[in-house]
């Protein structure tokens, strides 16, 4: 079966075009995560990972139920590194596909409906956003390699699969609302020279992306410097449990705004990508605060925000 036929068949089954299918993937993944987080029996088994899971591990007795058995299907927490390898490879793959008008690019871009193709991102926007996403994946991979320490922590295998799926899908989401321009414009070196002055929105949001990236890097560097798990004392952590999660939300929100097609306030596909990030990290931050309260006492983090001061 050809790539075009496979894409057609898949979208026909869902009854969606490529844009709607991507949005549905991000929203369904976010909704599933929220659903699992509601019952304590599911949350403790499947959502808590790393050091936070030390006190909530499923029973190792022979009388384990189905959920306990399912929760033992785990992979090393170090597999997080694979997410960013997937992100970088995805960025490179789609850059080649787009510039060379590859078969997979054609298969997906031509399956975007006219409704979603008409308000298109510009080529300059596409270049900027793809570069920013590549920078994010590269920085996070470098941090994983540089800051990681030997650990026996593990995570549920679905986390791993969903994470890989997210980063591969994000590699498509970053350009898909520019399909209209990509299908009607021939690339030239001029598109990479950035001779035109950026819009006011881009001029404001790209520095926001870079500042959030820098703050997240500082947070990761500080956490990696801790000799053991202690209550963070870095200025960024004063009153905030996971400021690095808040920074990541700002990173993806700024991408969604920078990637807004002409006449639109925000890129709706990247907005759903941001929603997944915010839900996933928001729940993890909540679990982290509970773990801090158990380990260091409830009063020590009682009034702390989860990710972003005065927001959440």
Automatic annotation (TrEMBL):
<keyword id="KW-0812">Transmembrane</keyword>
<comment type="similarity">
    <text>Belongs to the steroid 5-alpha reductase family. Polyprenal reductase subfamily.</text>
</comment>
<dbReference type="GO" id="GO:0006488">
    <property type="term" value="P:dolichol-linked oligosaccharide biosynthetic process"/>
</dbReference>
<feature type="transmembrane region" description="Helical">
    <location>
        <begin position="83"/>
        <end position="107"/>
    </location>
</feature>
<keyword id="KW-0256">Endoplasmic reticulum</keyword>
<keyword id="KW-0560">Oxidoreductase</keyword>
<comment type="function">
    <text>Plays a key role in early steps of protein N-linked glycosylation by being involved in the conversion of polyprenol into dolichol. Acts as a polyprenal reductase that mediates the reduction of polyprenal into dolichal in a NADP-dependent mechanism. Dolichols are required for the synthesis of dolichol-linked monosaccharides and the oligosaccharide precursor used for N-glycosylation.</text>
</comment>
<feature type="transmembrane region" description="Helical">
    <location>
        <begin position="156"/>
        <end position="176"/>
    </location>
</feature>
<feature type="domain" description="3-oxo-5-alpha-steroid 4-dehydrogenase C-terminal">
    <location>
        <begin position="179"/>
        <end position="312"/>
    </location>
</feature>
<keyword id="KW-1133">Transmembrane helix</keyword>
<dbReference type="GO" id="GO:0003865">
    <property type="term" value="F:3-oxo-5-alpha-steroid 4-dehydrogenase activity"/>
</dbReference>
<protein>
    <recommendedName>
        <fullName>Polyprenal reductase</fullName>
        <ecNumber>1.3.1.94</ecNumber>
    </recommendedName>
</protein>
<feature type="transmembrane region" description="Helical">
    <location>
        <begin position="21"/>
        <end position="42"/>
    </location>
</feature>
<dbReference type="GO" id="GO:0160198">
    <property type="term" value="F:polyprenal reductase activity"/>
</dbReference>
<keyword id="KW-0472">Membrane</keyword>
<dbReference type="GO" id="GO:0102389">
    <property type="term" value="F:polyprenol reductase activity"/>
</dbReference>
<dbReference type="InterPro" id="IPR001104">
    <property type="entry name" value="3-oxo-5_a-steroid_4-DH_C"/>
</dbReference>
<comment type="pathway">
    <text>Protein modification; protein glycosylation.</text>
</comment>
<dbReference type="GO" id="GO:0005789">
    <property type="term" value="C:endoplasmic reticulum membrane"/>
</dbReference>
<dbReference type="GO" id="GO:0016095">
    <property type="term" value="P:polyprenol catabolic process"/>
</dbReference>
<keyword id="KW-0521">NADP</keyword>
<dbReference type="InterPro" id="IPR039698">
    <property type="entry name" value="Dfg10/SRD5A3"/>
</dbReference>
<dbReference type="Pfam" id="PF02544">
    <property type="entry name" value="Steroid_dh"/>
</dbReference>
